[in-house]
Amino acid sequence: MACRTSFLKAILIILNVLLSLIGVTLIALSIYELNSSAPGTFEHIAIVVQVFVGSFVVLTSFLGCFASARVSFGLIWSFVICLLILLCLQIYIIAAAHSTDNIERSKNDFLALWSDQRFHEERISLIQQKYSCCGQLGAHDYILLGRGIPIKCYRNFERLEDHLFTEGCLQAVQNHSTDNVTVGLVIKWLLLLVEFTALGAATHLVITVRNKLRRERF
Q1: Cβ contacts of 22 within 8 Å, gap of 6 or more
Q2: Spatial distance between the Cα atoms of 9 and 14, rounded to a whole number of angstroms
Q3: I need a labelling partner for 55 at 20 to 30 A (CA). Which of 30, 48, 71, 165 fits?
Q4: What is the pLDDT of residues 33-71, one digit of tens each?
Q5: Phi first, then psi: what are they for 118, rounded to 5°?
Q6: Hey, how many other C-beta atoms are within 10 angstroms of the C-beta on 119?
Q7: CA-CA distance, 128 to 126, in Å (whole number)?
Q8: What pTM value is reported for the model?
Q9: Which of 176, 152, 174, 178 has its CA nearest to residue 165?
Q10: Which residues make beta-bridge pairs with 164?
Q11: What is the Cα–Cα distance from 66 to 12, expressed in whole angstroms?
């Protein structure tokens, strides 16, 4: 019994260290994407949710390590409950990620920004610099609107003809709509797998501890 408990403790601690590393990776990837996303868009909201999930994963892994080291019946059950909450969140996020049409979503997000250019000028400028694009369909959009071509439509902010971005941002955001999606999905699936394994090990450990306590009573 003691050998089984020690083995389960070791497995659970290793899994929680792995959970912590994956959680930190998810947070780092999310922060990197957050810095280059336009606030208020679906992408921005999804990234904020990822940061929350990653933080919850790290905190849960700390609880799991502490519960495993102490072999505390109450702490292990708390860890199991946190894992169940995480699993529900992960399943929902993965299902949403697979069912989302990223190209259509990015197109609609940009059209919503372009419909009120003056209010969303800062966000549009960010997109123009990020994707090296200009206007909705091209730089001529600004001319048709009776406006000058903004400096953000030029490489290195230099008003030179050969530095002008020629691609329209509507096409650019669609072309880049799946950037980092594959990496994100791999991390989410790996996290889900580790969480399921940790849940199995934690459940086995808590049953073992419960049986041990029962035997000690009698």
Answers
A1: 57, 187, 190, 191, 194
A2: 9
A3: 71
A4: 776 666 666 667 777 888 888 899 999 999 988 888 887
A5: -65, -40
A6: 10
A7: 5
A8: 0.67
A9: 152
A10: 154
A11: 10
